Amino acid sequence: MVCGSAFFLYNHYGTFGPFHSPSAAQTGTSPSLRWPGTVCPVALGRPCARISPQGNRRETPLTRSSEGLTPNYDPAAKLAESTCITVFCDFDGTYSVQDVGSSIARKYLGERRTELWDRYEQGIVDAWEYNVELFTGFKLPPADLHAFLETIDLDPGARELQAWCADNNASFRILSDGFDYNLDWLQRHNGVTFDYMCNHLEYTGVAADEWQIAPGGRNASCDCGTGTCKSQIIRAQSKQRPGAFTVHIGNGRVSDLCGAIEADLAFAKDTLAPALQERKQPFEPFETLVDVVDQLSALVSEAQALRAG
Q: Does the predicted TM-score (pTM) go above 0.85?
């Protein structure tokens, strides 16, 4: 069963609306999701042999770093009882290699970024207020932004993860605390398409070169303080699709932590992994989305065995 994609929640226009789902006509290209295949084990915790697009074989250890933190943590058993899978994936530093917003801030707004980050760490501003003070009125002409976005690479497993979701009737959605303008451009540039929920960016000013931003879905009841609260999106999905098994993939302690805790299964790296460990929250470690595909394949096999047994 496919988890439906048309569910609604608060967006930056102050209304409830669906995920943004660009069509091939909108992006100017058709999605290209196929990638070389894989042979995966039937249980987590074993190495998974993978042939890369270049033909090189490597071993990806599939280990549960969070075993022992939560004795009853058994995602395979939960999945065996579920009717469908929904995969929520962070964009910056997860679906893409680089963090778009942070990279822009470091390149063009270094001193201001450092000052604001200190204020964030002191609790004077939250994550969205940090973005507002940093980017509102920021002048970066579209041509310069596009040239910068050309330097952003997709994770080597990004296309394969979407292909896996399509092959396994799983919904795939990007959740980002970044901006729609950048996501739309990067989809066109890379020939990929995905549903997403994120913050809004448009150009204003006499020369149409000034940034104006708006949140995608603030949540005053969540400590994340972001413009797009991922936990409320995942929670809304769970309420509308009670039988869905939710997966969250991310890398950042600021924007991904609440979503990782809310999901049935979390994949984590970079600053998100230690943040979850500190809170004794279970997660699966990964380096690239190739590893996530391996682990999801193994998890599905394990769940199928439980269901059959």
A: no
